[in-house]
Sequence to fold (113 residues):
Amino acid sequence: MAQFRAKKLDLGCFVNIMNIRDHTKRKVFEAHESERQALRYTIRNTLLPQRTRAQAQLQLSQMHCYTRPTQIRNRCIMGGKGRGVFREFRMARYQFRLNALAGNIPGVKKASW
Fold:
């Protein structure tokens, strides 16, 4: 969504539209996380009146979808793939293999037994 997109991107990786969108989702989620937690706490608190809880639920449902944690997807920083990504290295399987064989990843070498 263009309203959330930063003027200058600090990605530090291969730039395609999927990486830009994921970066935007992460920034928006980070900015609204405390507000979402407060609303969720209000909704689950049974000591509060039902009207207050309903208003909090309405506010939460009207927030933008980019503020949800389920929108964030681990993507490869080399190619932008969304599947088969190692979390520790933020690379897809194929890119991980290429970089490991080239010796670009410290502490990783090809296994032999």
Strands lie at 85-86, 91-92.
